[in-house]
Structures are given as structure tokens and as C-alpha cells.
Amino acid sequence: MAVKVKVHVFLKPGVLDVQGKAVEGALHGLGWAGVANARVGKLIEFDFDGEDDPAAEAKRMCETLLANTVIESYRIEVA
């Protein structure tokens, strides 16, 4: 039976997030001065079938392809 997998990938703390800074600046310019520390990430969703432990397989996918683990962290959700 297929499960829905969501992988959230984001830059590690301390890594400059240029996109996040641009979003933050734009929001300030539009009047939301209270926005701070904006970070931009990516969400990868897919259906997965055929493995006993989909979370472990998703972790292997992240370590192999989906995340650059030198500068990015990830969080996996399986439903």
C-alpha cells in the first residue's frame, strides 16, 4: 500500500539564506516590518510503495539526492 511522503528541506542555521533575505526585504517593503529571520526551503511530496520502512527509504533518498547535507537539513513526514 502506498504512503504519502513529505520531505521538507531547508538551509542549516548559520548558512546565508539569500532567498530568505530577499523575501524578508520585500515583506518589509510591503508594510510587514515585524517579519524577521525569513528562511526559504523546499517541499518534496511523493507517493511511495513497496518498502517495509518508507521513512528509512526517504532518509536514504535525502542523503543521496534530495538534500545537500553539507548545507541543508531535512524533515520527513510519512502519512
Q: Can you offer a commentary on this structure?
A:
The chain is of the alpha+beta class and 79 residues long. The protein contains two helices and three strands, in the order βαβαβ. It has helices spanning 18-29, 54-66, and strands spanning 3-11, 42-48, 72-78. It has a three-stranded antiparallel β-sheet, with helices on one face. The longest helix has 13 residues, at 54-66. The N and C termini lie close together (11 Å).
Provide a concise account of the structure shown.
The chain is of the alpha+beta class.
Counted by DSSP, the helix tally is 2
What is the spatial order of strands in the main beta sheet?
A: 2-1-3
* Termini Cα gap: 11 Å
| Secondary structure: helix percent | 25-40%
* Protein structure class: alpha+beta
Binned strand content: 25-35%
Low-confidence stretches: none
From the spread of the alpha carbons, the general shape counts as elongated
The value of Rg in angstroms is 16 Å
Number of DSSP strands? 3
Mean pLDDT: 96
Written as H for each helix and E for each strand, in order along the chain, the element string is EHEHE
